[in-house]
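Fold description:
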Amino acid sequence: MNARLLIAVAGFALAALATGGPPAEARLPFHTGLFASGPLDGITDVPGVRVANRNKIEGTSIRTGATAVLPNDDPWERKVAAATLAFNGNGEMTGTHWIAESGYLEEPIVLTDTLDVGRADDGVVTWMIRRHPAIGRTDDVPLPVVAECDDQFLNDIRARAVTADDVVRLLDRAHGGQFERGSVGAGTGMIAFGFKAGIGYATGVLPRDLGGYVVGVLVNDNTGGTRTELRIAGVPVGERLANYPLPHRSRAPSGGGRTRSGSIVVIVATNAPLDARQLHALALRAALGMGRTGLTSNVGSGDLFLAFSTAMVVRHTAPFRVDAPRMPILEDDRILNALYRATAEATESAIADALFESRTMTGRDGAITYGLPVRRVLAILRAAGIAVEAPRAP
């Protein structure tokens, strides 16, 4: 075996040791809610939305990464209506003051770990200047949107492994279509309900008589909560897993604050023509989806939401000038109510998706967090009358 092949095999073995093997195919093996899922059941079902993940798994202690969400291929030139919400504010999402003031989003959204927010911000600025050389000269300057969750249990967060160059490469690779979920990108080192979690996606598609609009949700799930609090598809799965044996007991996170309370970032995208006021209301409904999973948002939680509409585009040209959007704002209460429900349902499903698509991971100081026992959970759901597909391979 030559040296290059040996290195490749060793790298694959290290990744398998860290994550318990490659993730299963995407999409939950069951469906909940009134609305159908999109063909990808992901935020990229919303036309124009682009996503990328960059994993940082190095040695025995680095378990982190970054995830990018773009509303289109150039949000600086085609800003989109947006709104943010700090449901519980023990966390950071930069750039939110300007979104609240202007009513639009003009940068990529980047998710990462808590101590890499500054480096991710630097990477976004570098990427945008390369694409728009007039920035900071004859044009305005960007205020990057970077959101964090604390992954210090599995990751040596003080190493600050995500670099500005990582984020530049991440943004260069963002595209539509299907993506890996679970322990990838910003979700690499995340934990929820005592199980391995991370990035989850889901969508809801309204019927034609309600406009046929799509709501897509992406979560970086690092929520607190104990195993017994977990509900999936309305079933108290966590209570029924209370005594479920794991090969070894996971070392519990130490300390207080967010280390125990956890956090979640929720990104909501839609192609419905909504303004910032309506998008704020849409973001608020993500909290209802959280509640359906058993979460209550603790004092130490950083539960941060951002919603945007790809249909409400604000044109930008240098020197700075904004052209008003031409599409009429949606004012039909029936459709708005359906969008609210679709957001809650998709958030609930995205949180479940993050759990189903993550696998057992060993990280810093030998800490182990076990993946959700999928076969056992599907048996519990089936016994409760939920229609599920055949169990997937572990």
About this structure: Residues 333-356 form the longest helix (24 residues). The CA atoms of residues 292 and 348 lie 6 Å apart. DSSP finds nine helices and 15 strands in the chain. The chain has one domain: 3-383.
